[in-house]
């Protein structure tokens, strides 16, 4: 059970309602009226609670679970212990995510402006906006209805923020236009100068960064991540993108819909990502490249050339996965041969 000091729980829900709203099917429809009052992991769930099985690695834990109900794929149903009510789903983890959101919905804004916040008279706040202590809303900024602005956050001049956004504490926004339902975690920085300068032995000359950052609706950006504004064209983050903690997005980068960028990854300036690209943790992508729709880059990889749509690349320099491991095997054989020759 989640700590009630930090999480407000809804429910209980009948299994019939959960099945209908979360894309699952009751193995025994006669159980539709049974209720559950919380979600929990396989090993912690008890009677009256709902759990899930997605990774086959946990089938042993599933066999011993005390949960009242479980979401799982049909192929694992035969492993169910007696008394557990089954909700069948082709994508158990996705169905569980939807169920968990019903029990623990995102907090809503509590309308009001804290007396220590500074809101310029020309800023426009929609209905139901919440502004926390020591936040600053500069002149001309627009905050959409139902949005939350966290403590110590600065919304810069003329920034536009959509409806029902959640902006956490200590966030700074400048030169940016942000869509609806965007979640920014603490410490996010959006719209600062890109890293643009003309090298000169007498002293590098700064190139003014004259673009903006556009972020589509339904994006989530993790703690202490940074997105630079464009140098002339805009930096664009497509709708539905998810960016993890400590990620750097350079100026003029464009990302399509639904991209995923995982912790400590970086994308250098003017690189274009298609839709649903995945960059794993600590991967780096050089500037002015094109990463095709659906491409995937493995953890700690260094991408120095374009990647066609749908391909998976790995390593430094990144290559197609099969090619990379072929290179590794070749080097290993050469090293073993050289070692044998020296004996």
TrEMBL record:
UniProt keyword list: Acyltransferase, Lipid A biosynthesis, Lipid biosynthesis, Lipid metabolism, Repeat, Transferase
Residue intervals of the UDP-3-O-[3-hydroxymyristoyl] glucosamine N-acyltransferase non-repeat region domain: 35-102
InterPro entries: Hexapep, Hexapep_transf_CS, LpxD, Trimer_LpxA-like_sf, UDP_GlcNAc_AcTrfase_non-rep
PROSITE patterns, per the entry: HEXAPEP_TRANSFERASES
Any one GO CC term of the record: membrane
GO BP terms, alphabetized: lipid A biosynthetic process
UniProt name for this protein: UDP-3-O-acylglucosamine N-acyltransferase
UniProt source species: Ferrovibrio terrae
Species classification: Bacteria, Pseudomonadati, Pseudomonadota, Alphaproteobacteria, Rhodospirillales
Chain's gene name: lpxD
């Amino acid at each position: 059970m989640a700590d009630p000091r930090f999480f407000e729980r809804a429910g209980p829900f009948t299994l019939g309602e959960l099945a209908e709203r979360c894309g699952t099917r009751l193995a025994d429809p006669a159980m539709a009226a049974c209720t559950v009052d919380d979600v929990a992991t396989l090993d912690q769930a008890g009677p009256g609670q709902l759990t899930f099985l997605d990774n086959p690695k946990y089938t042993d834990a599933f066999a011993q679970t005390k949960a009242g109900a479980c979401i799982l794929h049909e192929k694992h149903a035969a492993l169910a212990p007696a008394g557990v009510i089954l909700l069948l789903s082709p994508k158990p983890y996705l169905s569980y995510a939807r169920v968990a959101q019903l029990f623990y919905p995102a907090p809503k804004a509590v309308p009001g402006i804290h007396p220590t916040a500074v809101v310029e008279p020309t800023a426009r706040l929609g209905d139901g906006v919440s502004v926390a202590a020591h936040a600053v809303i500069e002149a001309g900024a627009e905050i959409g209805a139902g949005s939350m602005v966290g403590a110590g956050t600065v919304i810069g001049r003329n920034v536009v923020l959509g409806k029902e956004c959640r902006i956490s504490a200590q966030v700074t926004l400048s030169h940016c236009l942000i869509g609806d339902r965007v979640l920014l975690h603490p410490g996010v920085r959006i719209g600062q100068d890109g890293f643009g300068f003309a090298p000169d032995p007498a002293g590098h000359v700064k190139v003014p960064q004259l673009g903006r950052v556009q972020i589509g609706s339904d994006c989530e950006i993790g703690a202490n991540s940074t997105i630079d504004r464009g140098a002339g064209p805009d930096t664009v983050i497509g709708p539905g993108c998810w960016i993890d903690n400590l990620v750097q997005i350079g100026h003029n980068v464009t990302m399509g819909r639904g991209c995923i960028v995982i912790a400590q990854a970086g994308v250098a300036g003017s690189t274009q990502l298609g839709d649903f690209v995945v960059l794993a943790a600590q991967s780096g992508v050089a500037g002015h490249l094109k990463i095709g729709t659906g491409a995937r880059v493995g953890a700690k990889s260094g991408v120095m050339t374009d990647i066609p749509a749908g391909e998976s690349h790995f390593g430094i320099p990144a290559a197609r996965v099969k090619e990379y491991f072929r290179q590794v095997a070749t080097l290993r054989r050469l090293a073993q041969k050289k070692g044998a020759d020296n004996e």
